[in-house]
Amino acid sequence: MKTIKQRNKNYVLVENKNIERITKPKLKKFWDKNSDILKYYFGRKIVGDIAQFDFDKKYPNQQIVKEYTELNEEGTCKLRQLNRLKYGYNGLGGKLTPSVTGLKSKKALKTHYNDNTNDHLFGVTKVGWKIHTLIKELYDKGKSQDYIVNHMTEEWLPNNLHLWVCVQITKEEHKSDNLARDKHTLEEKNKMVHFDEGQIVLYIED
């Protein structure tokens, strides 16, 4: 079935496995309407990061800094965990919910809403660390605060809103033994590899 109707809305099967591409028209409208507040929330966090980089650079005990900010053998650290919340969940000051993205699974469209949940398709941990890494790379290159904030808010952000896309799936589909957590690259997630593995079929509001 390539089309499903729900509450007078038509949803069509997502056949193009490229989340960035299929969400672009809806996210463009969202950006045009909300860009000022998005740039403020995002830019304010970046300014905070730069101040923290300055603090880390001057701190006398660099071993503490290293343990806090650099990935360990398990691929994590305190800073990665914090950026999960700072940027992954709250980078935009709100969520790109299915009401914005129009993305729902086939099963969610046929299930009572109490049995559904919203999923950050790209995962908040990897997104948070990617953003931190981009900002840190610019800082390490000696770019000014104004340059970093302007680049990240005016150029990077409007072209990467898809990283915050949420989709509505069933609670059963969302279970960790069905939908892998933090196991795929962002590129793989953009191609919906983890959804294919979990046999989650996506539809988008027409």
Helices and strands in order, then pairings?
Elements (H helix, E strand, L loop, with lengths): L2 E4 L2 E5 L5 H40 L3 H8 L8 H12 L8 H4 L1 E3 H4 L6 E5 L3 H17 L4 H12 L9 E5 L15 H5 L2 H5 L4 E4 L1
Antiparallel strand pairs: 1-2, 2-6, 3-6, 4-5
Helix pairs in contact: 1-6, 1-7, 3-6
Question: How does this structure look, described?
Answer:
- This protein is α+β, with helices and mostly antiparallel strands and 206 residues long.
- It has one domain.
- Helices cover 52% and strands 13% of the residues.
- It contains 9 helices and 6 strands; from the N terminus they run E-E-H-H-H-H-E-H-E-H-H-E-H-H-E.
- The strands form 2 sheets. Strands 1-2-6-3 form a 4-stranded antiparallel beta sheet. A two-stranded antiparallel ribbon has the order 4-5.
- Strand 1 and strand 2 form a beta hairpin.
- The protein is globular, with a radius of gyration of 19 Å.
- The mean pLDDT is 96.
Q: How would you concisely characterize the structure shown here?
A:
The protein is of the alpha+beta class.
Helical content class: 40-55%
Order of helices and strands: EEHHHHEHEHHEHHE
**Largest sheet at a glance?**
4 strands, antiparallel
Oligomer: single chain
Tags for this model:
206 residues; 4-stranded antiparallel sheet; 13% strand; two-stranded antiparallel sheet; alpha+beta; 6 strands
